[in-house]
Amino acid sequence: MEKRLIECVPNFSEGRDHNIINEITAAITAAGDVDLLDVDPGEATNRTVVTFVGEPEAVVEAAFRGIERAAQLIDMRHHHGAHPRMGATDVCPLIPVSGITLEECADMARKLARRVSDELGIPTYCYEAAAFTPERRNLAVCHAGEYEALPEKMNTPGKGPDFGDRPFDEAAARTGATTIGARDFLIAVNYNLNTTSTRRANAIAFDVREKGRPQREGGRLTGKSLKDADGRPLMIPGTLKGTKAIGWFIDEYGIAQVSMNITDINATPLHIAFDEVTRAAAARGIRVTGAEIVGLVPKRTLIEAGRYFLHKQQRSTGLPEHEIIRIAVKSMGLDELKPFVPEEKVIEYMIEGRQPKAKKLVDLTCTEFADETASESPAPGGGSISAYMGALAAALGTMVANLSAHKPGWDDRWKEFSDFADRGRELIQRLNALVDEDTEAFNGIMAVLAMPKGTDEEKAARARAMEAATLYAAQVPMKTVRAALEVFPLLQAMAENGNPASASDSGVGAYAAEAAVNGAALNVRINASSLADTDTAAAMAAEAREACAEAARLRAAVVEAVDRHIKI
Asked: Is 79 annotated in the active site?
């Protein structure tokens, strides 16, 4: 299951006093299990942008604590800076990274906004996806007039905050108002051009950015700008929704770039923006030679891009994650100006790299895994081995699918086999996860055995814990049984229709899948036999036996299909 992660990027109205900045970030990191990725103070703006990530509940709590500390340390009555501002915590967006939707983040943002108002007394507006009214989706509407306009806004119906609306008072004068919302991940990207002309880079930016360019008399670039009846400039929209862009010249590289913010990566994914900028540049006789990611990107952005470019090449996408990301990097030239290191640019990899990592069984080498299994400890045991055999069976089917997609003369069938390979990758991931989960289940039983059992109450608690741990120890191999059964349709399809030179690999996969089912079924039955709930135990044992019979039938069908390719 994909880990739930959100990013929070609060902007605090202090960029000069590093003691205050450090106290705010300390409050954030002390609040919960979050990773502080970046602290970017600006002296001229008198503003600090903080970036941290983690699981949703931890991030929301950390955001609250940061807002609370900022309110204690920053007095808006004395704040001056170049950047527009309205409060000690000026803006606080929640941003989905993985395993969570924008709508869920919006709900969390509204709850956070209410809590900030109720517990801290800070007037709070909600913006973007968390907005209660369409006009307040626009941050500029919430910030209209900045801090100085708050006395009037808080005394005017319809202009006050969503939470904490009241006559302007001393508390509001000190903290100002905070704007809390939810938005999608913003990607900052620069497209490298084989020109030094800022003017031409700007022209390309205007072609593609959502805002577009002003309409001018006679369609001339230098003609008088046309306006509507209300005096607003008439615009020719660009081709990319949810984007902002300008052209500039970079002395460091000696080239012009189109600098773009993609504010809606669902409407315009990175790879679509790259292709469209490339098209617009080519129409003006200019080449895009590469791109430069500024800051971090979610992993899904590069996975989607890699799959997109593989599809354009009519190649299978059922590849390991790192290979798909490498295709994305090379396809968009993300490493043209400097090395692109995924561990430093992909937000999920950065989090993984900052956290202590317990070594998993699936991270061991084949030799290490065999040695660990052969050691005196009872785990890993048959359950983990069964799951790994299932993963290897799925890997063989995936390999045949990938080879078939790449087979000369079968170019028109690449998508058929790519879909099979994608299915195989999903099964590999599920079964690999079960390798370690089976050992975790065994360790759960060992933990219960260590519980005290002196008093009647302790004995009862221990018995309840043992029943729950034993049930889990039977449920995990049952998941292996079911997942391994799902490998057979892939192997059958590859044995019948895949590259005939690899038919035997499908057969080996079928034997491995059957062994995975049979081995996991034994673990189901032996653990279920210790359950006090005999009805559940009987039902699990019956399903395990039926799965073994089904695996034998499916293995025989695959091997029969393989035999048709073998002449002796």
From this structure: no
Claim: this prediction has a pTM higher than 0.70? yes
> With bands split at pLDDT 50, 70 and 90, how would you rate the model's confidence at 357?
low
Over residues 293-308, mean pLDDT? 92
The CA-based dihedral angle spanning residues 387, 388, 390, 392, taken in that order and rounded to the nearest 10 degrees? 170
DSSP state of 359: P
Residue 184 is among the residues annotated as catalytic for this protein: no
Helices (H), 144-194: 150-153, 170-175
Beta-carbon contacts of residue 259 (< 8 Å; ≥ 6 apart) = 188, 189, 190, 205, 245, 246, 247, 248
Closest-CA residue to 273 (of 303, 310, 243): 243
**Which tokens in the block code for residue 497?**
């229709």
CB–CB of 209/245 below 8 Å? yes
- Domains located in the chain, CATH noted: 5-182 (3.30.990.10), 187-354 (3.30.70.670), 361-563 (1.20.120.680)
3-state helix, strand, coil in the chain (%, to 5): 55, 15, 30
Q: Pinpoint the alpha helices (H) of 32-122.
A: 56-73, 102-120
| Tens of pLDDT, residues 191-247 | 999 999 999 999 999 999 999 988 877 655 566 778 877 778 888 899 999 999 999
Active-site hit among 83, 311, 406, 565: 83
